Amino acid sequence: MRQGKKIKFGIPGWTLKEPIEKLFQDAGYEFKINEKTSAVFVDDPELDCFFARGKEVAPLIERGILDGGIISKVVIAETKTKVIEIADLGSLYPGLETRLALAVPFKSSIKTLKNLKGKKIITRVPEITKTFLKRNKISARVEFSDGTNESRVPTFADSLVEFTNTGATLKFYNLKILEVLMKDSIVLAVNEKSLKDKWKKRKLEDLAILLRGARLAQEYAGLMLHVSNDMMEEVLKILPALKKPTVTQLRGENWFDVLTVANKKEIRNIIPKLKKIGSTDIVEFPLNKVVI
After folding, report:
1. Beta strand pairing status for 120-123 and 159-164?
2. For the chain, what is the mean pLDDT?
């Protein structure tokens, strides 16, 4: 490390606290966020972390006060900041897709976007909502509202724009999705100034590799099994893999050791198939990082 060289790095709160802690820990860091003091501990002297809301972090990256940080694509769009995304980390909730959706009550008279004319929409992302309405040439009243907005429709508003993963919360409040405004994901974002500094550029890109590798490993697992030569062709047809599986012949036998990496959801479906074919000694094991 160069004397005094540090990366000023933004960490968003508060709902992302636990998944971000886990992501850094899976990437090999000792990492802890103290929400009461807004302090972040990380066992890397070259990282100086700043804890704040995503809407605060994004403009600080753009202005060069922070070198980089973790923010969502929705925050980038809402704050209209110009940053450079060097790694897309997807949803920090493995297996779930985060969407920003416009929803209305099941029994609402609002059946199409045109029916929103003159209606009241509540949301925590008013700028994105206004842009969406303008693009679709709809005149409606947009009000900022934070908290459990689902419970406020239809009593206080005709519709809402809100985040959803499974749609369960919307259904609980008898709401249905009318339109998806955008899909959200978490990104590692930096500014142009930071990338012009060779040391900072290398440090940020290295961090991106580790975080992306840890994020992929949350959804993937390793799979090892023994396969005879007779069943090899059939096994390889059903084995998903990031690349072709590694096949090693066992000494003095007509059997092979097959090693691959696959999505955990795929693995749960293919293990019974592998067993029925005749594969033996099937072992699924966790991964720390998947770097491709």
Report:
1. parallel
2. 92
Q: What is the pLDDT of residues 104-141, one digit of tens each?
A: 999 999 999 999 999 999 999 999 999 999 999 999 99
The domain 220-286 having CATH identifier 3.30.420.40: the answer here is no
For residue 62, count other CB atoms closer than 10 A to its CB. 20
Query: pLDDT class for 96, splitting at 50, 70, 90?
Result: confident
In sign, the C-alpha dihedral spanning 205, 210, 211, 217 is positive
Q: Which two tokens stand for residue 125?
A: 């992302």
CATH of 7-91+185-217, one of 3.40.190.10, 1.10.275.10, 1.20.1050.10, 3.30.70.100: 3.40.190.10
Average pLDDT over every residue of 25-47? 93
| Tokens 């929803």, residue located | 103
CB within 8 Å of 4: residues ≥ 6 apart:
none
- Residue range 98-184, CATH number: 3.40.190.10
